[in-house]
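Lab manual, section 2.4: Encoding a predicted structure.

Procedure: take the sequence of the chain (106 residues), apply the prediction step described in section 2.3, and record the output as structure tokens. A sample record is shown.
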Amino acid sequence: MNNISPSPATLGTLNAISLAIGSGIRAWAPAAFTSLFAVGVRNHILYGQLIWVIMVCIVLVLAVAVHYIPEKAEGEIAHKRPDEEEPNGEARVENGQTSEEQRREA
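Recorded output:
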């Protein structure tokens, strides 16, 4: 979440939204999938295997969706220590800005 937040000011809101969505899915999913399993078995839809077809479809959709996640969200961004230098010779500081960029903002 830290890497994809548009600004530090919106990080708290983004965190709250993601937690609320995650909790909602965790609350809703067991009842929904149990109901789908029961309907498939009771009505002999796909010989009672309806839930497996639905889950495989969900997995396939999510497998395609993963390719559209922004590169910044992959968590592979290495945070350099302030004493390490960039190729242009400027040292990076903790918030990702060079000391030159911080001077311009101040």
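Check your result against the sample. Helices lie at 11-42, 50-65, 99-105.
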